[in-house]
Amino acid sequence: MENIVTQIQGVPLNHYIIFCSIIFAIGVMGVLIRRNVIIIMMSIELMLNAVNLLLAAFSAYRGDPTGQVFVFFIMALAAAEVAVGLAIIIMVYRNTKSVDIESLSKLRW
Question: How far is 29 from 19, CA to CA, in rounded Å?
Answer without folding.
Answer: 16
